[in-house]
Design brief:
Elements: H1 6-14, E1 35-38, H2 42-55, E2 60-64, E3 79-80, H3 87-101, H4 103-107, E4 118-122, H5 125-140, E5 146-149, H6 150-156, E6 170-174, E7 178-179, H7 182-195, E8 199-202, E9 206-211, E10 216-221, E11 224-227, E12 231-233, H8 239-244, E13 253-262, E14 272-275, E15 280-284, E16 290-293, H9 308-321, E17 330-340, E18 347-350, E19 356-360, H10 370-383, H11 397-400
Parallel strand pairs: 1-2, 1-12, 2-8, 4-14, 12-19
Antiparallel strand pairs: 3-7, 4-6, 5-6, 9-10, 10-11, 13-16, 13-17, 14-15, 15-16, 18-19
Helix pairs in contact: 2-7, 2-10, 3-10
């Protein structure tokens, strides 16, 4: 792998940019591997990378039915943060944010991390009190968070409408929260994993599992059988469908979560803002587009597209927060398939089938969890037991009732 640097960029510029090496090998599947990762999104790529880097595995394949990054990893609003309420979630997402902070240097790829701060708006004295309690809990967990008055927010976001249908009383902020470019994260992990010998096989759909005495022995794919004693499912919204092929039933509902962007304008939003009451979250991309998001669609679906009612609701909510946005045209909208569990926390770790692992049920929090998700799943696969950061997120919690209810921290209602 060629190391990116200013001298390398200058050299290629002098050559007319005609001799850049391929970023990824066009890998073909081999008959067998030490481990297989199913899913070419951020979590699958990060898991493959950390398996190779931290645990010395060299015979790893990542199987993606389409092209890498075309699923939820490229269909989100790029927010990274760790302001979660419950301690298991807080510890996990704080580790992920810490990894994000060093990811550009770690992977030699600029992920364009912008820690501009993520603000939660409060629209009533009661909501302010709830945010005070939440902020205190987050700080007790060892994560940065603090309260803001209405005047504080007015100084930070002068274009914000403070006297709308739900006047703004104040809010809370995590200053280290912000945005990271999702396609850069995908390609950074893909390039780094490929350089460590991981075979990234695109256009290879897994159609079934090879099982022997309740232990996985490999997979059936559209490109033939591939043997492996360890297989990890990291397929986001399709987790329940894929797990069913191994005889596993998951408590997951899949539905579309859509977002949209306006035409680009000069900088006008300084932070990432979320309002649970008005029901929208907004930010501005490095290209000047205003990024708008809201709640998931109300019906179950595997379609990567949104509907007009949700699109209209999100646009109305955004204009209520920032009336000046009403003058802008929407350029495009998209949707990802979110896999939502009853407690809106992920399902990570071992499954009832030996050697088969899962990283799913991420709902709306998958993107911000990519680095820690990959690191902890790689450790879990290598040691065949859950990493300490994910012991609370096992599938067995739905039988025992030890749920980790993070519905309020997800940022939108489901």
């Amino acid at each position: 792998m060629q190391r990116y640097s200013f001298p390398a960029l200058a050299l290629h510029a002098l050559r007319g940019h005609k001799r850049w090496p391929r970023v990824l090998r066009a890998a073909e599947p081999k008959p067998g591997y030490d481990a297989l990762i199913i899913g070419g999104g951020g979590h699958g790529l990060a898991t493959a990378y950390f398996l190779a880097k931290n645990h010395g595995m060299r015979h790893i394949a990542l199987l993606e039915k389409g092209a890498i990054g075309q699923g939820n990893s490229g269909r989100n609003t790029q927010v990274v943060r760790s302001d979660y309420y419950h301690l298991p979630s807080s510890k996990f997402f704080e580790r992920s944010l810490q990894l994000y902070e060093g990811l550009s240097r770690e992977l030699n790829y600029n992920i364009m991390l912008s820690q501009r701060g993520k603000i939660n708006l409060a629209h009533s004295p009661h909501e302010m009190e709830m945010q005070r309690r939440t902020t205190n809990a987050i700080r007790i967990n060892g994560v940065d968070s603090e309260m803001l008055s209405a005047e504080d927010i007015r100084r930070l976001e002068p274009a914000l409408n403070f006297n709308g249908r739900y006047p703004i009383e104040g809010g809370s902020v995590q200053w280290r929260g912000g945005l990271a470019r999702h396609d850069a994260v995908v390609w950074a992990f893909a390039r780094a994993a490929d350089s460590l010998g991981v075979d990234i096989v695109q256009g290879c759909e897994v159609t079934g599992f090879l099982l022997e005495n309740n232990r996985v022995a490999g997979v059936e794919t559209t490109r033939g059988r591939i043997a492996a004693p360890r297989v990890c499912m990291a397929v986001a919204g399709h987790s329940s469908e894929l797990a069913r092929k191994a005889g596993i039933s998951l408590p997951i509902n899949s539905m579309a979560l859509q977002a949209m962007v306006t035409e680009p304008v000069k900088p006008m939003l300084n932070h990432v803002l979320n309002s649970a009451v008005v029901h929208a979250y907004v930010s501005q991309s490095d290209r000047g587009e205003i990024v708008l998001g809201g709640g998931a669609d109300i019906y179950h679906s595997y379609a990567q597209r949104g509907g007009l009612p949700a699109m209209e609701t999100i646009a109305q909510a955004a204009v209520e927060l920032y009336p000046s946005l009403g003058r802008l045209r929407l350029m495009r909208q998209w949707a990802g398939i979110v896999d939502i569990t009853p407690d809106t926390s992920p399902i990570m770790g071992l499954t009832p089938v030996q050697g088969l692992y899962i990283s799913g049920g991420w709902g709306t929090g998958g993107y911000k969890a990519i680095p820690a998700g990959g690191e902890t799943m790689a450790w879990t696969i290598a040691n065949d037991r859950p990493h300490e950061l994910i012991t609370e997120f096992g599938l067995a919690r739905f039988a025992s009732g030890a749920l980790v209810d993070e519905g309020a921290a997800s940022g939108v209602a489901h």
